[in-house]
Amino acid sequence: MKPTRIIILAVAVVAAGLAGLLAVRLAGNKGPELVETVIKREPTVKVLVSSENLPVGSRLNEKSMEWIAWPEGGVIDGFITADKRPDAITELQGVVVRMPMFKGEPLRAEKVADSSSRIMSSLLPAGKRAVATEISVSTGAGGFVLPNDRVDIIMVRENKDDGRYITENILNNIRVLAIDQQIQETEDGKKAVVGTTATLELTPDQAQVIAVSQQMAERLTLALRSVADSQEADTVAADYLLHGRDRADIQVIKSGSIVKSTAATQAPAQ
What we know:
Blueprint: H1 3-39, E1 44-50, E2 65-71, H2 88-91, H3 119-123, E3 129-134, E4 150-158, E5 165-179, E6 197-202, H4 204-216, E7 219-224, E8 248-254, E9 257-264
Antiparallel strand pairs: 1-2, 3-6, 4-5, 4-7, 5-6, 8-9
């Protein structure tokens, strides 16, 4: 082999070696930075969550709550943290669940009530009343009305003048608190609840409306509403059934119709 070829081959081998060495050094310089980016983690905080699915009306216990690590940046006001309430699991024993909760969901004050034995009063929001009305399969959407559903209340009464029946929508988008003594859905969520009494969540005015309509009506019917309507107003009442907000009223009801309404003026406060 000619000396010139030997020299060229030697130069090529040296150049390849230098290029490989340079590539290794460059990769070595980037390696630690890449590894550091992968193992870097956001700080976490211990947050109290539900350890199982909890229906409305159930009570919290040590088995239904647990602490889990939660990204610090994802903690919002209302979460119960171990830093602020380390004894929260003990403090919340027996508290009543006001809204359905799912496994892993953070516990929040607005979803639970006090731990008294008065479950129904604990489930009522401030300013609301619980009023019961009789239902049947035919007046309760075939038994498919469940606790926490929304319904319209329709009053059916007979017009004594001409014998015709009148239907009136007296309350809209009303939340059903319970069917008979049941304040939560069935386990599988599919079985119909055939009851004789529905307990409704009402404002004070709505409570008066349904009290009057129960005396006037041939029957009251619960019309089941779509879940998509749940955001509509639920405080509207049939105002014509109410009289004199600032005075006591006496209504005379005969044969299902209001025949006389008088107002007794209340004495002024001393």
